[in-house]
Amino acid sequence: MSETTRVVFSGAQGRMGQALLPALRTSPGVEVVGEVDQGDDLGQVIRDVRADAVIDFTAPAAAMPNARTIIEAGAQGVIGTTGYSVDDLDTLDAEARAAGTGLLIAANFSLGMVLLQRFAEAAVPYLPRVEIIETHHEGKVDAPSGTAQRTAERLAAAGAEPGPASGDAARGLDVDGVRVHSLRLTGIEARQEVHFAAPGEALLLRHDAHSRLCYLPGILAGLDAVRGHVGLIRGLDPVLFP
Ligand code: NAD
Description:
The chain is 36% helix and 26% strand. The protein is α/β, with parallel strands linked by helices.
């Protein structure tokens, strides 16, 4: 493998592809050697251009097929597409190990979001009553966002206490006892607020993604991490906090 990572971008015509490709083309250590979208033969392109790695931001329906194509073609994968179950991740880990290649799958490549989740986890033992508000652009189809869902799961595992019980939808989705409230508004890319409260005080941790460029440093860190790695890396945490 050369010093420069030869990259194919899968999902090139999408919002992430269009936002990230210009920045990737000028990123040191990266050469964009292919761009594919729906209908293209990803495996054939990987082989034709002798790609080292594939960056995949496509759609949940393409998540497993594309990951398997990357493994079968012998490339490394840095995958941001959502829709993987825990079982899917276990399966891909085994398949990547058998093929001797490496994948990194992360539900969120923003460094600020990785930090927000860690800071929030650290606060839970001291301020266990916590709720989440996540806001995204109106084009987002899923609610709550996979990232907010994951934050809630992590806070629950860290000991968050359930709030007052209520069957009212206005109280948000109950994720393992942590309430998650979703807003969909034009003009806001992505925001997550983690609200803690205790008698006499409140703590708010908030992350704003103003532009999809916030995902670039995490993706570049992912490309470095999978170089020479065998098996699946789950999220950016093990890369940033080894
Ligand atoms: P989008 O719908 O704007 O773009 C997706 C693109 O993928 C489209 O051009 C579509 O034609 C293409 N596509 C669909 N199926 C394909 C296939 N089988 N092979 C190749 N291309 C295919 O979506 P988006 O906003 O760019 O987001 C893409 C994915 O990335 C979503 O799953 C989204 O949730 C996820 N996402 C992840 C992060 C992260 O940090 N991990 C950040 C933003 C978005």
